[in-house]
Amino acid sequence: MSESExxxxxxxxxxxxxxxxxEGLARSxxxxxxxxxxxxxxxKLDAATLDELEELLIAADLGLDAAAAIAEAVGxxxxxxxxxxxxxxxxxxDEIAQVLKPVEKPLVFDATKKPFVILMAGxxxxxxxxxxxxxxxxxxxxxxxxxxxxxxxxxxxAVEQLKVWGERIGAPVCSTKIGGDAxxxxxxxxxxxxxxxxxxxMIDTAGRLQNKADLMAELEKVIRVMRKLDPEAPHATLLxxxxxxxxxxxxxxxxxxxxxxxxxxxxxxxxxxxxGGILVAIARRFGLPxxxxxxxxxxxxxxxxxxxxxxxxxxxxx
Length: 318
Prior knowledge:
Strand order of the largest sheet: 3-2-4-1-5-6-7-8
Helix content: 40-55%
Shape: elongated
Number of strands: 8
Number of helices: 12
Radius of gyration: 21 Å
Strand content: 5-15%
Largest sheet: 8 strands, mixed
């Protein structure tokens, strides 16, 4: 393939990823884009329009601080001027991208750590098990050997779901009896993954309600027990967040971060909400890496997070 053909193929891939993101974020886009059109059509930029813009951004779950900062940036040097909706969308997109760019970090697997252990945390229904399957499918596609561990030992449905994913992607699944010890299972899975030379071990955990101290203690135990075999395990702890929970996601990041030492975030179900701006509020407050976002049901709909594409998609900026 020539250099120009390779460049064209890369551009087309970027375009298709952006298009998928745009489609996946349609509900959030509609709210923000239509809202901006309503505020800034044939009106001068003044205190009232800026207040309306700030309220619109807060309603999209961007958070008070981000909304105020973006409204201030929009108002700079434009006071009493007529500004079109498209220009405002571009400015808002640029401001959102600036907040998100520092947390745009791909999930990196250190090949010197074998197996590379990923612990998945999050509340019930956030999409942990599905996310494990999708990441596993991607890794298998890259030629890595993957093992899964069904650490959500209290929910038979979660164990079965992980086994289905294991069969689908061709990855062995470690499990124990329903109600069994999750920490013991994690230890056994790590020992087996070592023995079998797996590149990556992904461990599912119960969907702990973040205000349940005993369940959080169990999560801490899983980590403590694994470290008897590998003092550095887990090498990544990913918190899976459901975008439809809105502001509650902030509370989850705080609690799980304190308990499990979260190293990165995966935001799912962005296609199911009009409040995708919650990612901006989380980035601004915690600064944790955002590795992946889910914008649909398909495997290809779990995408590497791209700050600029997200900002453009969510605002409807061209």
